[in-house]
Structure formats: C-alpha cells, structure tokens
Design a protein that fits this description.
The structure holds two protein chains of two kinds.
Chain A (H helix, E strand, L loop, with lengths): L2 H20 L2 H18 L8 H19 L3 H11 L8 H15 L6 H12 L4 H8 L3 H18 L11 H21 L5 H20 L4 H14 L25 H15 L6 H12 L7 H14 L3 H15 L1 H9 L8 H12 L3 H14 L3 H16 L2
Helix pairs in contact in A: 1-2, 1-3, 1-5, 2-3, 3-4, 5-6, 6-8, 6-9, 7-8, 7-10, 9-10, 9-11, 10-11, 11-12, 11-13, 12-13, 13-14, 14-15, 15-16, 16-17, 17-18, 18-19
Chain B lengths: L1 E10 L6 H21 L2 E6 L7 E6 L2 E6 L7 E11 L2 H15 L3 E5 L7
Antiparallel strand pairs in B: 1-5, 1-6, 2-5, 3-4
Helix pairs in contact in B: 1-2
The chains are: A mainly alpha, B alpha+beta.
C-alpha cells in the first residue's frame, strides 16, 4: 500500500473522526491535510502499522498546537474539547459512528443535491476537487466553490453532525441512498469509456459497501449495494468492440463478472428474507433475475415490476415495466401502456415505443419514434445505438 | 443553543377566506403553544399585508421614503417565529409543523449570534 492509496482509503475516515473532535469540518480537513503532509516526509522508509490511527493522532496533535497559538473563544473551547478526549480513537465503535455521522451530514436534505454529491465524493470518497471536476465535466472552480459553500452552510445553519433519530431515519437514509445511486449512474451511463467516469461507479460501490457494513440491519442499504454490484457486473459486456452499446438480450453473458453476480445474488436473498421490500431491493431483485441462468425469466421480472410500481408509482417505473409486459404478454399490450405515459423530454420513452412498433411491424411509425428518441438522447453512445436500430429497420423490406 | 427565524412566505395575490384565516390562526396558535411548552419559543408575530408597508432609504446623509414593500414580489413576509433550539434538524422539525399549520412555505434562517453568549 502506498501513500496515495492510504490517502484515498483513510482521508474520509480521519476527517470524520477529527470533525467529532473539533466540531468543524473545515478545521478537521486542514488538520488531516497537515498530517498527510507530515506523512509524506516521515513515511519514506516504512508505513506505520495502522496508517489511519497515525494520521488521526498526528492531525489531533497539530490541531491542538494550532489552537494553542490562537486565543479566540472558539479556539479555547475546541482545545478544551480535544484535551478531554480520552485516549486514541482506535476503538472500532466510535470511528464507525464518525463515518456514519459524516454520511448523513454530507447528504443532509438542506443542502442542494449537487452539493450533497460533491461533499460525499470529497469527504467520503477522498476525491479532491479536480478529480470531481473531471468526473462531472465541470470547471474545478465550480466544484471547489460548491464544496466551500456547502461546508459554510453546514457550519452557519447548524446542520448537526449526528445520525438522525429513528423518526427521521427513513427519510434521511433515502437521501443518502439517492446520492450514492446518482454517483453510480453518473459513472455508468456515461459510456464515453472515460476511466475517470468508471471510477465514479467504483467509488459509489465502495461507499455503498461501507454503508452496508455500517448499517447491516437496513435492508434498503443492502438492496442498494446488491443493485450496484449486479449492474456493475455486466459492465464488461455492455459495449461492443467499437464502443457501441449492446442491449441486455444481446450481451455475451460469459463476459459478466461472476464474482460480483454471486455476491449480488447472495445480498438480494439476504435482504428480501427480512420481508420489508423497498425500491432498491426490488430493483436489485429484478437485476438478480436478469443475471440468473442462461436467459431472463420475464414472468418473474414482471411480477417484481408490479411490486415496484405499487411501491414507486412513477412513469419511469411504468415504462420499464412495459418492457417486461412486452416479453410476457406481447408488444401490443405494452404499447398501450407506453402510449398512456407522459415523460416529456425523456428519450427512452420514444426509444421503447420505437422498439414495440417495430415488433408489431409498424415500420414507418417506428422510424419516426426512433427519430424522436435520437433528437432527445444526450449521450453520443446512446444516440448512435438508436441510429443503428433505426437504420436496420429502414433497410428491412 | 442557536436561534432561527421561521419566516412565513405569503402569496398576497391569492387572498384567503375568513374561514381559512381562522382555521390557520388556530392551527399556528397550537404550534406556538407547543414551542412554548418545549422551551423553544422566543417570539411570534403576524404581519399586515404589504400595502401597509413603507421603505426608508438612506441617501447622502438624509433619507427618502417610498410607499409599499421593499421588493414588489408576489410572495411577501406574512409573519414569523423566532425559536431557540440545538441545531438545524430541530429547527426544521418545527418548520415542518409551521408549514403544515399555515399551509405556506417557511424559510428557515439562522441568526448570526445568540444574544448573551
């Protein structure tokens, strides 16, 4: 393990602990960064046995030194707090709690969704502002500003650094899961083949793993992890040699990551046994069916979509369910469902219509629907996938 | 302890019936009582509509006066609570109750300093 990987693995954990000790994320980050700067000089020959604990201790000592030099009321208060902390935070319990607190603070609904994402990647993922900027294709200054502003709001508005109580937990946990899911998707749907974007998905998987480890009794957390693993497992097969998108039915199943699939299946079984299905568990279960055996059992997929739609009655879920309806009951019934949906600007609606129309032999209408989908698609890879489908159709007699 | 302003954003272009007003007064009064019982209450006040408002502006050592609210927008400050709680989560929990009681958006804004600290 080199210093870079220690930084990536330990940065968030150390900042979380120092935030508890100092009561301020900004001060905590400064102290941890100073400690890593010391580490660069001292770890030349050999890494300490427990690099994370070393960083926390060093950061804590640095913070005490700095607070001694300052004489503001806040500094004296913080110093008293630090000196009264018993022992080193090596015990596992408190450190785990620190991380959980940090996750809930970063994903607090009083912060904008973009700020939640940036803070989560920074403080939990250990990514720095330039890395986040490259992953989201936005200017570094924008990311930097967003993070600074979010930290300022946390401090000034008094966003607490704690795990929400039982009454608040379901809503607040949903916000955490959404952030991780969005980070994963940002890395997954951008099929430009850019490695940094792939990193974003892996980062989301890593954070979902950590969260599942911290909250083993929350079935939706396990469900999210299972979902991410089962989608990630298919990554090697979802692009052809020329970088083109390969739909699920045409994917080379032998290229799927068997290890991730086995782990995902196990997690799905484990969380569904609890009998409290939620949207992430159901989506994970759907993906478990897709990755089970030589072909998808669509009857099972449809019954899971029925449950998901009952739970989350949104037009996007209804659209995905229609795809399963087409496989089980035929394209005509599915088309009737799709034609009832209102999803302005969403390219997958006309794309799905186009596919159903093509299967019904209504070629001219299908071509028109593909044209609409191509206009609405925002991603080059998806656009060229749709264009290929459209062309194949217009060439057929 | 931190102090927060819970400001009621009132759409003045949509007048409400007397019946509605009475119901909301009763509901918000109940929330105020709860705040008092919990030791979170500092102040509460309802404002007359912005037609009664006057703005005084400083200008070169003197002032000028204009009729009407500072910003001519549809939403105006309709009233507010000042509460004293531990953190934003507690303030948001009160804002939840206030929003449901008066049926209007509530802006939650922390005070710069807690007097006396």
């Amino acid at each position: 393990m080199d210093l870079d990987s220690v930084y990536r693995a330990e940065y968030g954990r150390c900042v979380a602990t120092l935030t508890r000790l100092l009561g301020d994320i900004g001060l905590a980050e400064e102290a941890v960064q100073e400690a890593f700067a010391v580490a660069v000089r001292k770890w030349d020959e050999e890494l300490p046995a427990n690099p994370g604990a070393w960083i926390v201790t060093t950061a804590r000592n640095r913070a005490i030194d700095r607070l001694r030099r300052e004489s503001t009321r806040h500094a004296r208060h913080a110093q008293a707090l630090l000196l009264n902390q018993p022992g080193e935070p090596e015990e596992v319990g408190p450190v785990r709690d620190d991380q959980l607190r940090m996750i809930f603070t970063c994903c607090h609904p009083a912060l904008s969704p973009l700020a939640q994402t940036a803070l989560t990647l920074r403080l939990l993922g250990g990514l720095d502002a330039p890395e986040i900027a490259r992953a989201y294709l936005v200017p570094e200054a924008t990311v930097y500003q967003r993070i600074v502003r979010a930290k300022k709001k946390i401090r000034d508005a008094g966003i607490p650094y704690r795990v929400p109580d039982a009454a608040e937990l379901p809503g607040r946990l949903a916000s955490v899961l959404t952030v991780l899911y969005l980070i994963f998707n940002e890395g997954y749907t951008s099929t430009s083949g850019d490695l940094l974007r792939t990193d974003l998905s892996l980062e989301a998987v890593r954070m979902a793993r950590a969260l599942a480890d911290l909250m083993p009794d929350e079935p939706e957390v396990t469900g999210l992890l299972a979902l991410l693993l089962l989608v990630e497992a298919r990554r090697p097969a979802r692009m052809g040699p020329a970088g083109e998108l390969v739909p699920l039915a045409e994917q080379d199943r032998s290229a799927w990551n068997r290890e991730l699939i086995a782990e995902g299946h196990e997690l799905v079984r484990r969380c569904l046994r609890r009998g409290q299905p939620g949207p992430y568990q159901l989506q994970a279960a759907i993906n478990a069916v897709h990755t089970d055996g030589p072909a998808t059992d669509w009857t099972q997929v449809l019954s899971l979509y029925d449950q998901l739609l009952a739970h989350t009655p949104t037009p996007i879920v209804a659209l995905n369910r229609a795809v399963a309806v087409a496989e089980v009951h035929g394209p005509a019934l599915a088309l009737a469902i799709v034609d009832e949906l209102d999803l302005p600007g969403y390219h997958l609606l006309p794309a799905t219509r186009a596919d159903l129309l093509a299967r019904l032999g209504r070629t001219a209408e299908a071509v028109a629907a593909y044209d609409e989908a191509i206009t609405l698609a925002t991603n080059d890879t998806e656009r060229s996938f749709l264009a290929t489908r459209r062309e194949r159709l217009s060439r057929e007699p | 302890m931190k102090q927060y302003l819970l400001a009621v954003q009132l759409d003045e272009s949509a007048p409400e019936s007397d019946e509605e007003t009475r119901r909301q007064m009763a509901a918000t009064g109940k929330v105020t009582d709860e705040m008092k019982a919990a030791g979170s209450w500092v102040f509460v006040g309802g404002l007359l509509p912005s037609h009664a408002s006057t703005v005084v502006r400083p200008s070169g050592g003197t002032t000028t006066m204009t009729d009407g609210p500072f910003a001519e927008t549809k939403e105006q400050l309709g009233g507010f609570w000042v509460i004293q709680v531990d953190d934003l989560d507690q303030a948001l929990a009160w804002a939840d109750k206030c929003a449901l009681a008066c049926g209007r958006p509530i802006e939650v804004r922390p005070f710069n300093i807690v007097p006396g600290e």
